[in-house]
Amino acid sequence: MLLMEAGDLQLTASGSRTEQLFHAIRHKIVSQLWPLNGKLPSTRQLAQELNMSRNTVIAAYEQLVAEGYIESRQGSGFYVAVALPEQFVPDVVIKDVQTKAMKEPHLQRAFRPGVGDFEAFPYRLWQSMLQRHSSRRILMGSHDPQGLPELRHALSDYLASSRSVSCDPSRIIITSGAQQALALALLATLSSGDDIMMEQPGYTQMRAIINTLGYRIKPVPVRPISGLDLDHVLKQQARALYLTPSNQYPMGTTLNTEQRLALIQWAQTNKSWIIEDDYDSEFQFAHRPYTSMQGLAAKIGLDQHLLYVGSFSKILFNGLRLGYLVVPSKLVDKCVMLKNVLTGDTPAHSQAALADFMMEGHLLRHIRKMRRHYQTKRELMVEALHRYLGDKVDIISQAAGLHITLRWQTGITEQQWVEAAQKEQLMIRAMSYYDEANFATRGWHGVVLGFGNAPLEKIDEDIRRLAKAFVG
Ligand SMILES: Cc1ncc(COP(=O)(O)O)c(C=O)c1O
């Protein structure tokens, strides 16, 4: 039997005598200077050696036993415990609580696409909604992975009135952002190796999901101003078609009713799925938005091939991570099963707060306010672009959403402009970011500028700086 010696046991300077002894012995054990099964000095012996009361030593030993560092063997004494807690629960020292993402200020830089105006968010109101639900015990347990019924009801009313989406609450699945809704839509409809047509250029995140899940992308060209190459789709077959029909991302084009109907018919004929991503349709500035494809298909009884995806990221804020998927009744069980397998239920407090926010009319008021606000920002941005860049670039995107897409032919490359903008602390996206690799090259350069988070009073000056960086 290995006997441990008090030896050079160093008491720490702070804390009570018991705590000092506890930490000194713990240090010996954790650094394995006192090995497993080593016998500790008796409490009487240690008290004598360290010139402290026996009660102090007993208290320290009891604490060490309670935390699993040592064990008491009846009639024999105290031993270093077999199971070293630190082997399983290492001391984690969080040196710097700032994560990499928090340190990256450019995440919120002016002109970053896809970010709303957080300054205009009704914080107080939102806080009161959250607070109202924060102590509800019922919300603390697990919930239906499909989403809270009250939120699905509120959403069903909202989608029916604003986008003519045909869905009773039983067909809605609340997801962690549109991102998860898109993944669920793919998993519920496709098998490994299936092909899916997707807009080119298109939403990069969707491309990443499709590739990661092992499906094959068939790119469909989207042209400046005229938009999706409809004939290209109609001539082909694929298990699914992914579209952003109300505000094509990133080209900012839209499909009219006739084009939407042609695609719905194509899906019916080919028994293909359509995944409609309606991520920012609330913000249409020039005309009333077209009815959603899902709503249009439902009117003619053809919505059994349509999956509709939406998000609260643009109308509220990205960090809320709430989105939704509306599916034909026959896909509900499969989607809920997949949602359950992937992440289980969605945080209940945010869902409950959002349901109230919608039912009490705050969401519609907020959207109306933000529509005017974003329209003003867009107009200022367009004026400034004309002022500082003249006819060097064309605006090719419609007056909608939270971004403006620019095109030009010669001079500076899109990558060079992105880098020059970065030096000005501005963030713009090269069109190539949205391109399918190996797809035929465009004959023009393009960038996408978000105006959602650009401070109103700085738009003119920021565009002036951006234009200076454009040495075309
Ligand atoms: C085309 C498109 N779909 C969906 C989303 C929304 O994604 P999420 O709800 O996951 O934030 C975005 C966000 O930028 C988008 O650009």
From TrEMBL:
Gene Ontology MF: a single term: transaminase activity
Database matches in InterPro entries: Aminotransferase_I/II_large, HTH_trans_reg/aminotransferase, PyrdxlP-dep_Trfase, PyrdxlP-dep_Trfase_major, Tscrpt_reg_HTH_GntR, WH-like_DNA-bd_sf, WH_DNA-bd_sf
Positions of the HTH gntR-type domain: 15-83
Stored Gene3D superfamilies: Type I PLP-dependent aspartate aminotransferase-like (Major domain), Winged helix-like DNA-binding domain superfamily/Winged helix DNA-binding domain
The entry's keywords: Aminotransferase, DNA-binding, Pyridoxal phosphate, Transcription, Transcription regulation, Transferase
CDD domains, sorted: AAT_like, WHTH_GntR
Similarity annotation: In the C-terminal section; belongs to the class-I pyridoxal-phosphate-dependent aminotransferase family.
Name under which the protein is recorded: PLP-dependent aminotransferase family protein
Lineage start: Bacteria, Pseudomonadati, Pseudomonadota, Gammaproteobacteria, Vibrionales
